[in-house]
Amino acid sequence: MYNKAIIMGRLTADPELRQTPSNISVTSFTVACDRAFSKGAERQTDFIDCVAWRGTAEFVCRYFQKGKPILVEGRLQVTNYTDKNGEKRRRYEVVADNVHFVDGSKNNSGGDFGNTFSAPANNNTNTGVAFSSGNTEDFEEIGGLDDLPF
After folding, report:
1. Structurally, what CATH architecture does the domain formed by 5-35+43-147 represent?
2. CA quadruple 92, 10, 146, 51: dihedral sign
């Protein structure tokens, strides 16, 4: 079995870069994702917690702000812990492996987002994002959502 999570939505707050005691970059952020809904029904939103490490964390903090659309690829992680009252708790979050820009405009198919932008492929391997240069010109446009491989 393979654990893969792909979510697309908007950031609920500006991400903040932190450092672990061993100087590893990390950021936590929440993505608001609309659920599919039937005509006439009230729109519902899920708020999904995410965490990014190292270069991915630095990338998210440099280029994404509150309200910006984002596509996150990663894996679902479950953490069990005991709270301060001694109650056992469980936390779910997406650990981001790749983060992509998403054009926030409506597309003709009625979806919430238009095009995605990701780093160009290197040696026929899609790296997802470019961490080193920090230049948005390092990214190429992919067609609409119908062109995505998932």
Report:
1. Beta Barrel (2.40)
2. negative
